[in-house]
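To whoever is on call:

I kicked off a structure prediction for a single chain this morning and the downstream step that reads the tokens threw a length-mismatch warning. I double-checked the sequence; it's 105 residues and nothing unusual in it as far as I can see. Pasting both halves so you can look.
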Amino acid sequence: MRRMFWLSVGVAAGYYAARKGSVLVEEARERGVVGNVTLAAATAGKAATAASRATLAVGEAVGSRTRSLTEDRAPEADPAPRPAPSSTTPTSTTPTSTSSREVRP
């Protein structure tokens, strides 16, 4: 009995696919080569746009999650950024008892 059921499901699906396929082939013939290429390009463009939007959405979701994780952490002892040492910054040296140490303003 199960075999008969699945056989009938397969026959129905095959009939549906054959009918749908013949309709699609007729539409493709009517459009011609240029129409088919144009349709394929438009479909590819829509797929690329959808993928780009999905990538941006995932990136924003991950970025907001990352920001919330870093905001939950305790602030560091010295939150102010330190300027990079410059070659034009004047330095002065002050002698100590046994060695000299460089002091930057």
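Update from on-call: the warning came from a stale cache, not from the record. Cleared it. Sanity check on the structure: The chain has a mean pLDDT of 79.
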